[in-house]
Amino acid sequence: MKVLIYTSSGGTAHDSAAEAIRQWLERERPNIEVRVDQVLERSSSTYRGGVELYNWIQRRRPWLHQIYWRAMELEDLVKPGTVLFGRQYLIRELQDFRPDVLISTHPHTNRGHFDLAKRVLGNQLRCITCCTELDGGFGFSRNWLSRRTDLFWALTYEVVREVRRRRPGVPVELLGPLLYPDYHDGGPAPAAVEGLPLLVLGTGSNGANNHIPLLEQLLPFAGQLTVAALCGRRQIVREEVQAWVDRHPALAVQVLDYQGPDAMADLYRRAWAMVSRPGARTATEALFMGCPLVFNHYGTTMPQELIAPRYFHARELESAIRRPVELSSLVHQWLTNPPAYLALRHRYQQHLLTADPSTILERLALE
């Protein structure tokens, strides 16, 4: 059996979901040949430019996503039941690899892509949408929904409900999150963390962050907590943060570049809290690991970044900041009122996202 996974680096969640599926299949189903393709970037210069623009906006001008996202919701105008940009690349890959299963982890590789794939290989090709969102409503892209999907893989009941409301008849199932094996193997974080609190400042792989303004607000808490500042894959970001840390030795800060799954799973288990933009993957990981998450709405909030806070708010898990000074207030509140913090952490334990990898793999491979 062969499995082809479509993804794109526009956001961290999609590549992470694709890579996690690949790792699980290779570990548990070694007889299956798996290929992961960042298909938007590789198939067309038009799509590649769109992904680069997305990541630039996220790093530099988040408010522009209010326009970008709405424009992308009209994608059907340029791919009506098929794919126009990168079409020959897609056909060549499908004919060369001839997958039995095609999995999409990105909203813009479903509509049109599934239609084209089935025309090339036939209706026996099993097309699966692996949706990375936690909830429905505004911000949930219509591009996730294709009538050509054979299985819509949902992480939560809220997404199941959204799919049934928008596209009755689409075969949707609640399977839960399949994270990297390191997350599942080691289990969630403990109910309480010991020692000096560790606050993790998160970022995506593209390094989008406002770490230095946040670190400035944490200076009064030197000696009361430690900080890990994640800088993604951008060396310039790490150098800027490290230079600030060198000038402020009183605050214990560890500056980290991109961390692999084993290191990130360990950070979640040790963290007092994680500060991050409200992206889908970090939110899913925090819910799976039981680690309190502080949504960092710096710049502005993208429409798709409204989804995770909506899910958290419904469960009284939401903590959020819009200005760096608000992080100082939140940290002070938690440090001076440990019972309130422990109550929040207990709620995370009550609302852990769970999944059975063996069940998911069976559904993917139809075994």
Describe the structure.
The radius of gyration is 21 Å and the shape is globular. The mean pLDDT is 92. It has 16 helices and twelve strands. The chain has 367 residues and is α/β, with parallel strands linked by helices. The chain has two domains: 192 residues, Rossmann fold (3-Layer(aba) Sandwich), CATH 3.40.50; 162 residues, 3-Layer(aba) Sandwich (Rossmann fold). The N and C termini lie close together (11 Å). The longest helix has 17 residues.
Q: Summary?
A:
About 45% of the residues lie in helices and about 15% in strands.
**Gross geometry:** globular
Question: Class of the largest domain, according to the CATH hierarchy?
Answer: Alpha Beta
- Spatially, the strands of the biggest sheet line up as 2-1-3-4-5-6
- Using the 3D structure, state the CATH architecture of the largest domain: 3-Layer(aba) Sandwich
* Structural class designation: alpha/beta
Oligomer state of the chains in this structure: single chain
CATH fold annotation of the largest domain? Rossmann fold
Key features?
367 residues, 16 helices, 6-stranded parallel β-sheet, single chain, Rossmann fold
Write the layout of secondary structure elements.
Blueprint: E1 2-7, H1 12-28, E2 33-38, H2 39-43, H3 45-60, H4 65-72, H5 87-97, E3 101-104, H6 113-121, E4 126-130, E5 151-154, H7 157-166, E6 172-174, H8 181-186, E7 198-201, H9 211-218, E8 226-230, H10 235-247, E9 253-256, H11 261-270, E10 273-276, H12 280-289, E11 293-296, H13 307-314, E12 319-321, H14 324-336, H15 338-350, H16 357-365
Parallel strand pairs: 1-2, 1-3, 3-4, 4-5, 5-6, 7-8, 7-10, 8-9, 10-11, 11-12
InterPro entries: Diacylglyc_glucosyltr_N, Glyco_trans_28_C, Glycosyltransf_28_UgtP
GO cellular component, one term: membrane
Family: Belongs to the glycosyltransferase 28 family.
